[in-house]
Amino acid sequence: MDLRLLFLLALLSSCSTGNIDRFDQVEIGMSHDEVMEIIGTPSSTYTRKVDESGRVIRLERWQYGDVLSTLATSAVYSEHAPDRVWSVSFDEQGHVVQRHEPDWSYQPDPSVVPSSIPSRSR
């Protein structure tokens, strides 16, 4: 099997949604272990990040339901979770301070974003 194909399959299999149907059971104040027990292993994690003055730039965050595009977005803009993933943010002691569900309402304006499939009508 082609090594690139094997890598892609491994990457895609790591983008699982766990028990995301139970995401509404995650509550503010829960510990890492409690979140893990409810919704399982995250598809990606981001460590807490502070600047040299001690100001928090990014909370520790677990994301669920990542796909290649959300992983790429998070790699470039890691301070905020993409709109299309479930995320749980933790404070310095490892307790939930924020939870976010995907926003599926956004649809790009077709007049601004051209279709990738050309029209067959001439």
Describe the structure.
- This protein is of the alpha+beta class.
- It has one domain: Beta-lactamase Inhibitory Protein, Chain:B, domain 1 (2-Layer Sandwich), CATH 3.30.1450.
- It has helices at 3-13, 32-39, 68-76; strands spanning 44-46, 49-50, 56-58, 60-64, 86-90, 96-100.
- A four-stranded antiparallel β-sheet has the order 1-4-5-6, with no helix packed on it. The chain has a two-stranded antiparallel sheet with strand order 2-3.
- A hairpin with a 5-residue loop joins strand 2 (49-50) and strand 3.
- The longest helix has 11 residues, at 3-13.
- The protein is globular and about 60 Å long.
- The termini are far apart.
Describe the SSE topology.
Layout: H1 3-13, H2 32-39, E1 44-46, E2 49-50, E3 56-58, E4 60-64, H3 68-76, E5 86-90, E6 96-100
Antiparallel strand pairs: 1-4, 2-3, 4-5, 5-6
